[in-house]
Amino acid sequence: MFKTTRVVGAMGAATLLITAAACGGGADSSTGGAGPNGIEQADISVGALPLADYSTLWWAEENGFFEDEGLNVSIEAVQGGPVGAQMVASGELDFTTSTTFNTVSATDNGMPIETAALVSGSADNSIAMYVNPDSDIQGIDDLDGKTIGINNTNNTGDVTFNALADSLGADVTPTFIEVPFTEMLTGVQSGAIDVGYSPEPFLSAAWAAGMRQIIDLTDGPNNEIATSNIVSSKSFLDNNPNTASAFARALYAANEDILANEQAWRDWIPSIAKMDEGTAQDIPMPVFFTEMDETALQHIADLMIEQDIISEDYDASEFAWTADE
After folding, report:
1. In this predicted structure, what is the pLDDT of residue 35?
2. What is the set of domains in the chain, with CATH numbers?
3. What is the pLDDT of residues 221-257, one digit of tens each?
4. pLDDT at 10 exceeding the cut of 60
5. Per-residue pLDDT for 41 more than 70?
6. Are 159 and 204 in contact (CB under 8 A)?
7. What confidence category does residue 20 fall into, taking pLDDT thresholds of 50, 70 and 90?
8. pLDDT tens digits, residue range 147-168?
9. Secondary structure of the chain: what % helix, strand, coil (to 5)?
10. How far is Cα 30 from Cα 236, in angstroms, rounded to an integer?
11. Which of 83-98 are b and which e, b meaning 16 or more Cβ less than 10 Å from the residue's Cβ?
């Protein structure tokens, strides 16, 4: 079974960024000596959020894909991609889940991390914006000056919105307000924000509450966009290439297995992503990647370049680590 051992908040991560950097590596993660497949260390720690987009991790653990590679993986809960990225950069974690948008922004700002594996992308209508059913907002052209809740700025919500608006020629400038996904629906219902943004399973909860969709953020330039990845520090990847290769192979093998067993995945996912069985049968299934795709990562970077979020010469291939065959 998978192991979730602790939750680390932003304050804890900030402290760990200092203390763990002095130690130079992830705590209690090295076994010493080469293991099966020449791996440098068998015990690795991975920070993760229990969402369908990252379900590959638990599927790989429960179905023996990590074990087949000689890995003993500890999955540890983190409070979001930015916190996890800090912990990876400091050496407190070996790997962590992230969004591709957060990874591109962090690496552009000099954080020494790389994408170790590309996990999943957004299926059709799996990320969307919604309003109260009696709202006078009907579509994207009505959003100029309106407030839109997003979980983080310069991330999936606002970047995909701006990309879609640009592709449609919509000249609108909303105000983005950071709201946790767990509070997004109540924010719309109370009128604190005009528009909510959510991925699954929060989106299904919004539909169940009677919210009305106004934008499918997977349209246009965002179709099957690569949104979810796993990162590691450049130092860990350089020092443990065989371990990282084995980890990536296990993830991609797990994704191939998920794609071949969709119904089994839908029956199983409520145990990980905290959704009911009915929602699990109906949600759009993430687009699971079975190999590194630098073109998909560069597409994310290009969207952010166009929005003046990152440097115009950003090259995603410099921050995409490819496992040895």
Report:
1. 62
2. 7-123+225-319 (3.40.190.10), 127-222 (3.40.190.10)
3. 999 999 999 999 999 999 999 999 999 999 999 999 9
4. no
5. yes
6. no
7. very low
8. 999 998 999 999 999 999 999 9
9. 45, 20, 35
10. 11
11. bbbbbbbbbbbbbbbb
Closest-CA residue to 98 (of 115, 111, 110, 112)? 115
pLDDT digits (tens, 9 = 90+) for 183-231: 999 999 999 999 999 998 899 999 999 999 999 999 999 999 999 999 9
Measured CA to CA in angstroms, residue 321 lies from 93, 117, 241 at distances of 17, 8, 10
Q: Residue 288: which of 117, 91, 147, 44 has the closest Cα? A: 117
Report the relative pairing of strands 72-78 and 7-8 from DSSP bridges: parallel
* Structure-token match 């074990």, residue found: 67
Runs of H (alpha helix) within the chain? 10-23, 56-62, 65-68, 81-90, 100-108, 156-168, 181-190, 202-208, 234-239, 241-260, 262-268, 270-273, 277-282, 294-306
Residue 74 near residue 45, CB atoms below 8 Å: yes
Q: Closest Cα partner for 67 from 244, 247, 231, 323?
A: 247
Position 27: which residue type?
A
- Confidence (pTM): 0.84
Question: Cβ(246)–Cβ(71) under 8 Å?
Answer: yes
Amino acid at position 160, single letter: T
> Contact, 314 vs 121, CB < 8 A?
no
The residue written with tokens 């767990």 in the block is 182
